[in-house]
Amino acid sequence: MSELNLRFYLDPQSGYPYIYNHRVTEEEVEEVLFRPGEDRNGCEGSRVALGTTSRGRYLRVIYVPDPVPGSIFIVTAYDLEGKPLAAYRRRLRRKR
User: Fold this and answer.
1) Which of 19, 22, 58, 73 gives a 20 to 30 Å CA spacing to 7?
2) Phi and psi for 42 in degrees, rounded to 5?
3) Percentage of residues in the chain having pLDDT higher than 90
4) Kindly report the CA angle at 90 between 87 and 94, in degrees rounded to 5?
5) How far apart are CA 79 and CA 43, in angstroms?
């Protein structure tokens, strides 16, 4: 997609990216980050990207911009469901 280096937080128990605990793939994270519906400030310097994957899955991706140019550290990503999903869809409708 682009020359952006994505680093993922690794689950200390498994050694795999933490996003796997939420059944999210690296490709899905990339899709949301490259075409977010929203990207806003999070807590303690983090950012929150909300968006849809090519398969129609709504995700929330929590990340921190790395000090290294062109690099992002992905903390976690998971499905957007329930009231947060409904609120996100309302905000998207208002934008259009």
Assistant:
1) 58
2) -110, -150
3) 84
4) 140
5) 19
DSSP letters along 47-67, please?
EEEEEE-TTS-EEEEEEEE-S
Q: How far apart are CA 18 and CA 78, in angstroms?
A: 10
The pair of three-digit structure tokens given for residue 63, joined into one six-digit string: 């990340």
Half-sphere exposure of 18 (CA within 13 A, CB side): 15
- 42-55 tens-digit pLDDT: 999 999 999 999 99
CA 33 – CA 39 distance, rounded (Å): 8
- Alpha-carbon 9 to chain mean position: 12
Please say whether the beta carbons of 50 and 31 come within 8 A: no
Chain-centre distance of CA 87, in angstroms? 17
